[in-house]
Amino acid sequence: MKKIAIIGSGNIGLSLAKGLVKTNFAKAENIILTRRNLAQLASYASEGYKTTVDNHQAVAEADIVILAVLPQQLNAVLDEIKSAIVDEKHLIISVISGVSCAEIKSKLNKNIEVIRAMPNTAIAIGQSMTCIATDGASAENLNHVTKMFETVGLVSKIQEDLMTSATALCACGVAFFLRAIRAASQGGVEIGFHADEALKMAIQTAKGTADLLFINQTHPETEIDKVTSPKGCTIAGLNEMEHNGFSSSLIKGIKLSALKAGNLYTKEG
Ligand SMILES: NC(=O)C1=CN([C@@H]2O[C@H](COP(=O)(O)OP(=O)(O)OC[C@H]3O[C@@H](n4cnc5c(N)ncnc54)[C@H](O)[C@@H]3O)[C@@H](O)[C@H]2O)C=CC1
Ligand SMILES: O=C(O)[C@@H]1CCC=N1
Questions:
Q1: Per residue in 214-236, pLDDT tens?
Q2: Where are the domains of the chain?
Q3: How far is the CA of 225 from the centre of ligand 2 (A)?
Q4: pTM over 0.80
Q5: DSSP string for residues in 4-37
Q6: Which CATH superfamily is domain 4-160 in?
Q7: What is the 227 CA–ligand 2 centroid distance (Å)?
Q8: What is the ipTM of this complex?
């Protein structure tokens, strides 16, 4: 069983760790979680994960190193772990937005394989949409990483220059759909439901809708056509939303997030 070090166990790092254990890809005792404030990992330590503030030691003990700090925290971490990395032993996976494989290799000054993965927080429950890219990792390592992320959701292999787009659509996307569900529930309260009931109704409606597309393999407009009765209330509400910029605002938001994702990292740190 390979040992995995997650360097920077915050929101996505911990979601990933939970998903890998929940789906039996890894045992908690084979995952080393690092974070600057160890107290934040106490509950994970009690579940059997190894926890430490020592990134260098964590890398030395691991076979797979997952970089999950913020882009602006990366350079300090790479300086810290550089001397613990052994070219033939380690595989680096980076989930960090906006930092290329080449930039990581150049900072480490090593001939090491780096694979980028862009998961989302639904990885904690095995439902991530994860995009993977590399600039030359071996087929063996790419397959291993693909299998790893397939245990916790769907995987698409993409060109590396599309990774910032994947960040916006799939990783930020969780927040966009959540806000849509929240807004729908607020509308539900205005028209007569208690907040908890409205939220439950909005969640199940969103879940069923996503499953309709998955199971029927249809286009959204095909399913919309089935809901919009002539002269009916759905088309009235939908057109009102479009007059207020519903599709346009999602498209613009995704474009801005993608732009921002590409500018999160500066080589200087
Ligand atoms: N949150 C999300 O949904 C996703 C985030 N990402 C990427 O993952 C990375 C992390 O994002 P989040 O988890 O949201 O941020 P976060 O701030 O929740 O997690 C980063 C963690 O790294 C720790 N850290 C910082 N410096 C450290 C150091 N020197 N040694 C050890 N730990 C250190 C912080 O204490 C923090 O717990 C970012 O680069 C982001 O672009 C990628 C996909 C989805
Ligand atoms: O907001 C962010 O910058 C990170 C990247 C994707 C999701 N969270």
A1: 999 999 999 999 999 999 999 99
A2: 4-160, 173-261
A3: 34
A4: yes
A5: EEEES-SHHHHHHHHHHHHTTSS-GGGEEEE-S-
A6: NAD(P)-binding Rossmann-like Domain (3.40.50.720)
A7: 34
A8: 0.99
